[in-house]
Amino acid sequence: MSEALHIHSGTDTAHAGHHGDHHGHHQQSFVAKYVFSMDHKTIAKQFLITGIVWAIIGGLFSVLFRLQLGYPEQSFPILETFFGNWAKGGQIQPEFYYALITMHGTVLVFFVLTAGLSGTFANFLIPLQIGARDMASPFLNMLSYWFFFMASVVMISSLFISTGPASGGWTVYPPLSALGQASSGSKLGMDLWIVSMALFVVSSLLGGLNYITTILNQRTKGMSMTRLPLTIWALFFTAVLGVLSFPVLLSGLILLLMDRNLGTSFYLSDIVVNGEILPNEGGSAILFQHLFWFLGHPEVYIILLPAMGMVSEILSVNSRKPIFGYMAMLGSLFAITILAFLVWAHHMFVTGLNPFLGSIFVLLTLLIAVPAAIKVFNWLTTLWRGNIRFTPATLFAIGFVSLFISGGLTGIFLGNSTIDIHLHDTMFVVAHFHIVMGVASFFGMFAGVYHWFPKMFGRYLNSTLGYIHFWVTMIGSYLIFWPMHYQGLAGIPRRYLDKRGWVSFNGFPELDKMITIVSIIVFAVQLMFVFNFIYSIFKGRKVTNKNPWEANTLEWTTPLRPGHGNWDGEIPEVHRWAYDYAKDGRDFIPQTEPIGENESKH
Amino acid sequence: MISQVNIKEFQNTPSGDRGKKIHPHKFTMWVAIGSIVMMFAGLTSAFIVKSNQTNWVTVSIPDMFWISTAVIIISSITLQMALRSFKQRVMNQYRMLIGVTLLLGVAFVVLQWLGFQDLWAQKITFKGSGAGQFLYVIFGLHAIHVIGGIIALIVMFIKAFIGKTKLYSSVPVEVMAVYWHFVDVLWIYLLLFFIIIGGK
Question: Residues of A numbered 405-464 whose beta carbons fall under 8 angstroms of chain B's beta carbons: which are they?
Answer without folding.
Answer: none
